Amino acid sequence: MERLSSIASKTFVDDLRSEPTPSQGTVQVPSSTSLVPSPPKKLAKVSKKDGARDYSAEREAARLNTSDRVADLAVSGRDQTLGDEYIKLAQAMILCTLPHSATKETKITRRARLGDGTTLAVTFSATADGIGLPHGADRKLLFWLLDRAIRNDSPFVPWSSAAEFGREMGLEKGGRTNKQIKERFSRIAGLVISISRKGTEATALDTFPVIARAYLPNSIAGDTKQASLPEMGDRFGVLLHAPLFQDIKKHNIVMPRRLWLDLKGPTPVQDLVFWLYYRCYAASSESIIPWDALSDQFPQTDSNPYRIRQHLRKAIKVLKILWPAAQVKEDPRGLWVAKASAGMLDDDVTKNRVRKL
Question: Phi-psi category of 337—alpha, beta or left, where left has phi over 0 and alpha has psi -120 to 50?
């Protein structure tokens, strides 16, 4: 297993190094990934150069680390251990994503057209005074809370310490991590989501604050002198807005938990991998998603119009390593997607796995 992981890791890194610039034209993605034997390579140690950060070395180390994780996931997919546990993610927030980086905007709307003809519009609003919209890795904490609620079949999510989230995410212990978790939670606590689903005959519109109430230790929420939740006694935790909880139970995307947990790298690429995974899984026939439609769904973090295509090329390569049967490639008109020729994982009734993932 270690050998195959090293081979996949090296192949993935080589692919990213040979990534063409937009002026070189469209990349044709092969229908399967070839794993060519090569000597395993260790992660380079990142150190300061002349007392300053070496950004080039940091990027190289991050790229190698990402490739190792993708390779490990690919091995797990082939030996079927990848599907031992699932996570359910909010469909609306996979198809229409949160900002990738901090923004001064307090309200952002994303739009997507679904395969059944429904138009989905999601508006994210920051309502807490002086606190911005969730962005970047904040989505990990938000999805973690939502998934725990769905798994427990209750809008109440027990949460006793910042370390509880940190351990599951593999974060380093320490004050810096706790501070980041506090900041992430404060942005999530002020988030309000409006979801519009427009069909051929009617439009459904719902507006949800994410969190109804919370009673949390200072390691998460700071010294807020908050009152406990009477119906929960003295238990620490978060009470999600009940209608939002019901909406996510009805509209969610199921994927292997390790895929969501272990996939690292730039947030835009992660978002696109998860989105492509869903599109390839849900596709009933081939379709073209226009380039301008993608800009309505995903944040544009700079003025480079080709940036989303660069991220897509990387996301397609990641998905192809994890799921060679996925049918997706670039097309001059946009992104071509079709029904996968085989599921990511086989059904396994002994593990109550009956969905073709």
Answer: beta
291: how many CB neighbours lie within 10 A of its CB? 18
SS (H, E, C) the chain: CHHHHHHHHHHHHHHHHCCCCHHHCCCCCCCCCCCCCCCCCCCCCCCCECCECCHHHHHHHHHHHHHHHHHHHHHHHHCCHHHHCEEEEEHHHHHCCCCCCCCCCCEEEEEEECCCCCEEEEEEEECCCCCCCCCCCHHHHHHHHHHHHHHHCCCEEECCCHHHHHHHHCCCCCHHHHHHHHHHHHHHHCEEEEEEEECCCCEEEEEEECEEEEECCHHHHCCCCCCCCHHHCCCCEEEECHHHHHHHHHCEEEEEHHHHHHCCCCHHHHHHHHHHHHHHHHCCCCEEEEHHHHHHHCCCCCCCCCHHHHHHHHHHHHHHHHCCCCEEEEECCEEEEECCCCCCCCCEHHHCECCCC
Among residues 241, 274, 328, the alpha carbon closest in space to that of 88 is found at 274
Q: What is the tens place of the pLDDT at every residue in 268-293?
A: 999 999 999 988 888 888 889 888 88
pLDDT exceeds cutoff 70 at 72: no
The token pair that represents 36 in the structure block: 């060519």
Global pTM reads 0.74
pLDDT category of residue 33 using cuts at 50, 70 and 90: very low
